[in-house]
Amino acid sequence: MAGNPQIPQPHLRPRADALTGYLRNISITILCSLPCLHAASGSDSVSLNRLSKAEKRAGWQLLFDGSTTDGWRNFRQKSLSDRWRVEDGTLVRAHDGAGDIITDDQFENFELTLEYKISPGGNSGLMFHVTEQESAPWMTGPEIQILDNEHGHDPQLTGWLYGLYQPKKPKWVLLEEQASRLLTPTIPDSSRPAGEWNRIYLRIGPEQGELLLNGLRYYSFKKGSPDWNKRVAESKFAAYPHFGNARRGHIALQDHGDRVAFRNIKIRPFRDEADIHNPIDGRIDVDRIPAFSQLEFEDLDGETAEGKVQNVRPIALCGDTLGNLFVATQGGTVHRFKNTPDATTARLVLDLRTIVSDRKKANEQGLLGLALHPDFAKNGRFFVCYTSTDDEPCRTIVSQFEFPPNGQAHRIDPSSQKVLLTISQPFSNHNGGSLAFGPDGYLYVGLGDGGSQRDPLGNAQNLGTLLGSILRLDVDHSSSEKPYAIPADNPFVNTPGARGEIFAYGLRNVWQISFDRDTGQLWAADVGQDQWEEIDVIRSGGNYGWNHREGFAAFGNATASENANFLDPVWQYDRRLGRSITGGFVYRGSNIPELFGYYLYADYVLGRMWALKYDAKTGLVIKNMGIADGGLPVLAFGQDDAGEAYYMVEGTGGGTIFRLTPKK
Questions:
Q1: Closest by alpha carbon to 168, among 221, 207, 116, 208?
Q2: Closest by alpha carbon to 279, among 577, 658, 581?
């Protein structure tokens, strides 16, 4: 079994008092019977005020190189005042009389990112579409407020679009909080205090603009829309006829009389909403064909009683050594059929629809994971992960089922389940649920952080809860307290206050996990919040940063423990490329030699598919290759016993499972 390498010091941090009472009511019960800034980047670290290779490919440009003030000048001047200075790689408003500054160039549609550090009590601003028709930049260009929220003297807080827009909770977050009876502040604040670096992401497009502060989406707007015009008319800016009218203009940094520093100022211009940079190194052309075009799922009708089409959502596919494939559906069924192209019927072998929560009411719930035991051909054991309808709050359940001896054609009685693990879920989303057996024979379980937005309970950084982590369980043995055993070399077995089942943590909503058949490496795709989708290679004891980081970037305003040692993802892509990553596996089949050794992944929302080549020795991504540019809302990947690749989409019958094959 795998050894236990040196691990980072675990981060056990106390919860806020306001949550303590709620947490006392969240029980983790063991029963005795059983997922823009730069478009993508690999784990090559980016130096301060520099562009990564992926950023360059994606069209990003530096507005500040860390050494000079080239490209900037004072408003309505031809040069830059020496009261703006470069200090230790930062652009600093250092002395009184520095004045507002603007870029030499003008921009229309763009994405902008920068980091700022404000002095105690300080005030500054970032403006866009600035023209020089008025006597000050703010009279033409809308201003993103920069402020020391704690000691500042302006009711407009940092990140607000001055006088026009302020942070707003998404409706789905409000609904989640109301359902869980846990409320967070009405106006979100993700700012870090004076003296710490904050990160702004601003996107201005023809259809929508948006602002993120430290990774949290604050608001969206559209210049010139009726809502925009109404807000402007009701503000002090109504007195300035040129305010907000320009479609193209300068970027401006404000001198408000206080010291402020800027760094990592980067911009990516784009033509229109369809102008998306996909930073790939080339393409691997494969055919994507229906794998079983005649297949029908037993007892899953193609239409409802009202005559409407009833789609199937396959979420897991795996093969045994006997030539069978097993498919789990989110609705709560497991089907089996022969792995032949002319297969016609997928037999229902397990029906959990009466005990699995309805994904139509909460679309991240249902049957979420399936894994066959490594000795399945001999013992008939397999495992599922699902959310249960039985109780409030919702529970995640990991259970074992077993085919009767010499009776694999039989349907299994749902009441025969052996419940291994039951975990209370505070919210309806971020349930994770992916299952996989490792080369060590242990069962690995990927769990989300419990849901809502920003991980409000801090689960992912709390080793005292199983949420936001990947578990490692010995399902072939049990203890006096649990129907499974905890491997002795699990990284937190001897850590006071920690759950020994945890193998790695700091994860938001893993979908999905898999092991490389050749190397034994554990891969996980982690669905992002507002900015980054990420891919991780999982190590024993690893802390992957959520909710202090999203991808490579700092997230939110929580202060990490001094002992925190976050591990970087091997790859990330931003939410212009996609909005919900679907993790796959490293292809080790024989039918498509050009895919051998590549990790397959996709984005469910925007329908793209890629293949990632990773060098485990250097920890660097070698290539990111495109497979499909859209139209593939991939729910999950799967592989048969030979390692050949399949992916699943929502649909009916044979229209739900596709096979990757060599290009003809």
A1: 221
A2: 577
* Helix intervals (H) in 338-485: 376-379
**What pLDDT score was predicted for residue 302?**
66
Query: For residue 591, with 0-12 CB atoms within 10 Å meaning exposed, 13-18 middle and 19 or more buried, which class applies?
Result: middle
Could you give the dihedral angle defined by the CA atoms of residues 414, 415, 419 and 422, in that order, rounded to the nearest 10 degrees? 80
pTM, entire model: 0.89
Cα 533 from Cα 526, distance rounded (Å):
6
SS (H, E, C) 265-302: EEEEECCCCCCCCCCCCCECCEEEEECCCCCEECCCCC
Q: Which residues, in sequence order, are bridge partners of residue 646?
A: 638, 659
Taking a C-beta distance cutoff of 8 angstroms, is the pair 536, 570 a contact?
Answer: yes
CA contacts within 13 A on the Cβ side of 359:
21
Residue carrying structure tokens 């019977």: 33
Strand partners, 252: 102, 127
Cα 46 to Cα 442, 552, 621, 647: the distances in Å are 37, 10, 14, 34
Tens digits of residue pLDDT in 274-315: 888 888 999 999 999 999 999 999 998 666 667 777 789 999
Q: Which pairing describes strands 620-628 and 609-615: parallel, antiparallel, or unpaired?
A: antiparallel
* Residue 34 · residue 398 · CB < 8 Å: yes
Nearest residue to 22 (alpha-carbon basis) of 141, 183, 154: 183
Distance CA 548, CA 555 (A): 5
Domains of the chain: residue spans and CATH: 17-38+280-662 (2.120.10.30), 60-269 (2.60.120.560)
